[in-house]
Specification:
Elements (H helix, E strand, L loop, with lengths): L1 H18 L3 E5 L7 H9 L3 E2 L2 H10 L4 E5 L2 H10 L2 H14 L15 H13 L2 H10 L22 H7 L3 H11 L2 H8 L6 H14 L9 H7 L3 H8 L29 H11 L3 E8 L7 E2 L20 E10 L1 H12 L13 H4 L5 H10 L4 H13 L3 E5 L4 E3 L4 H58 L3 H14 L14 H8 L12 H9 L10 H34 L1
Antiparallel strand pairs: 1-2, 1-3, 4-5, 4-6, 6-7, 7-8
Main location: endoplasmic reticulum
Keywords: ANK repeat, Cell cycle, Cell division, Endoplasmic reticulum
Subcellular location: Endoplasmic reticulum
Length: 571
């Protein structure tokens, strides 16, 4: 009995399912309908309960679409619109309200693997010029397609900075970091339409400094520290976005692995690197724009704790015009104290050697520099102190509109380029002046030739008037011999050596014009005395002109002093 009931129930349930009506709707796009049958199709809505009939229509219209519904209203709507009009309206509303951000692809292609191998070799060899030329011709050597550092060595996923650090190339590290952090470099890659290239430059600099490798999860700072590369560490930590507390795969910080991969134990090197990993401080020189205030030596500051200047809107604006560092805080305080406080004069006379007398610790020299040179006196003392403490030094030069140290290669290159441009302008001006003088001289020669012809005719007529008789002619000749006797030329004594100095000096070119100014003397004192004339020909030429000008000025001063002594003695 129960089995019969279950069988009947199952049959009844299946009959309910089979009795559900399914509507098969066929939608035919309007662009695929002939105009002759368009009206008939619109009047006849293609909704079928038999799926075979719907499939026949699909075979007739290849672009038709078939869809099944349980409700006839939905099937009719689909057959008429295909649900496209509502979607179209929604899409237009979305497009009108939400702006579409499109990033145009740049014109630089990704380098091939062979090119990346050659580029990696240039980094290892330290060829700065070739690397700089390559990356500025195609920024994709440094920036990958995903706006991340380009991978130069697969597997461990080394970028350009990883390779430069492992090769112990501090100059190459600085070049790479300065390039990726340069807004002009980012602008070259993404074009002028990109308004966020400043942020992208900072992001790219942060990625290069803090991106770990794939093997040990170590940053470039880890590499430099564990191999004992002190100069590379100094370059890396000089950037504020360099994070010194990132752990590697074994949870070790850079300060925990100092010199762990060096061949020899060097406690002095470990100490220097450990000091570099501490917070770095700089000692600045603060000056006002209009020099209405005396220059001061500011408090030591760090990139994470900058100076608070110009809090008073009434007072003159102060700016950092020079700074020494980086140093630890204790060493920066010691540096500032020695820089700010002049050494005391010795009460008892002590015989000094030449080196001691010229040292910066000399109180006489220290005070003389501060008092005589108001514009660069503090900088001159700080420059020598930085050399004594073996720290970097930078000072601002208005004619370069940049900070530079003319005792380093980088600063000398900046000065060399400026003087090269200066001498080229002088040569161009000299050529133009010579051409104008040549034209004027030709005109003067033509005028003079005409005047000479008139004088020649006049002299001829005058000579004919003198030949009146033999006696008169003889008397005139005698008179001429009496009044113009043969004599040697008069000796002219010139006691002035200024003409000699001027002839030796010639037409010099200086930083602000044809004569040296205070700026020339300030730069002359800042430039290293031993220079290679082949490497820096324009600086060497400018130094020569400065030496001649200084000799001439010294001679004039001595001449004036001699004249004063004679005048006093005569009285």
């Amino acid at each position: 009995m129960d089995e019969n009931v279950q069988t009947l129930h199952g049959i009844h349930g299946n009959s309910n399912v089979s009795n559900e009506i399914i509507y098969h709707a066929v939608y035919i796009p309007e662009e695929n309908i002939d105009s002759s049958i368009e009206n008939s199709i619109k009047e006849n809505i293609r909704v079928y309960q038999d799926k075979a009939e719907a499939l026949k229509v699909i075979k007739e219209f290849k672009t038709g679409r078939l869809k099944s519904f349980k409700k006839r209203s939905e099937a009719e709507e689909y057959a008429q619109t295909g649900f496209e009009k509502s979607n179209y309206v929604n899409s237009t509303l979305i497009n009108a309200t939400v702006p579409v951000v499109e990033e145009k692809s740049n014109n630089f292609k990704a380098p091939r693997s062979q090119d990346l191998i050659c580029f990696k070799k240039l980094i290892k060899d330290g060829d700065l010029y070739a690397v700089k030329t390559t990356v500025w011709e195609n920024p994709r050597y440094l920036i990958g397609s995903g706006d991340t550092p380009a991978i130069l060595q697969e597997g461990c996923r080394y970028n350009a900075l990883h390779i430069a650090v492992r090769a112990d190339r501090p100059d190459m590290c600085e070049l790479i970091l300065n390039t990726v952090g340069n807004t002009d470099f980012i602008k070259l890659l993404y074009g002028d339409e990109c308004k966020s290239y400043v942020d992208r430059a900072q992001i790219m600099l942060d990625l290069y400094l803090n991106t770990p490798d794939k093997g040990l999860n170590e940053t470039p700072l880890h590499f430099a520290v564990k191999f004992g590369l002190k100069n590379v560490v100094r370059i890396l930590v000089s950037y504020p976005c360099c994070i010194k507390t990132l752990p590697n795969k074994y949870k070790q910080l850079p300060i925990d692995i100092i010199c762990t991969r060096t061949c020899q134990e060097d406690e002095g090197l470990k100490k220097e690197i450990r000091l570099l990993l501490e917070d770095q401080y700089y000692v600045p020189v603060l000056r006002s724009d209009d020099n209405t205030l005396q220059p001061v030596i500011g408090e030591p500051f760090s990139p994470t704790n900058l100076l608070s200047l110009n809090t008073d809107p009434i007072s003159p604006r102060l700016e950092v015009r020079a700074f020494a560092g980086p140093m630890t805080k204790s060493r920066a305080l010691e540096f500032r104290k020695k820089w700010k406080t002049p050494p005391r004069l010795r009460m008892t006379p002590i015989k000094k050697t030449d080196d001691e007398s010229n040292a910066i610790d000399s109180p006489t020299n220290n005070l003389a520099l501060r008092l005589q040179d108001v514009e660069k006196g503090l900088e001159r003392v700080g420059r020598d102190l930085a050399e004594e403490y073996q720290v970097s030094w930078k000072e601002y030069w208005l004619f370069l509109n940049d900070f530079a140290d003319f005792r380093t290669k980088e600063g000398l290159i900046k000065l060399e380029k400026y003087l090269e441009h200066k001498f080229q302008n002088q040569l161009l001006h000299h050529n133009q002046t010579s051409n104008e003088n040549l034209i004027n001289s030709n005109e003067n020669l033509q005028t003079k030739s005409q005047i000479d012809e008139i004088d020649y005719l006049y002299n001829k007529l005058q000579s004919w008037s003198l030949l009146t008789s033999n006696g008169e002619e003889q008397n005139n000749v005698d008179e001429l011999e009496f009044f113009t006797p043969p004599s040697s030329p008069k000796l002219t004594v010139d006691n002035s050596d200024d003409e000699m100095q001027n002839a030796e000096e010639g037409h010099g070119t200086f930083l602000e014009g044809p004569v040296p100014t205070k700026l020339d003397h300030a730069v002359y004192n800042a430039v290293s005395t031993s220079l290679n004339s082949i490497t820096y020909p324009n600086i060497y030429r400018w130094q020569h002109d400065m030496q001649l000008a200084m000799k001439r000025d010294l001679h004039r001063k001595n001449s004036i002093r001699g004249i004063r002594r004679k005048l006093i003695m005569n009285f």
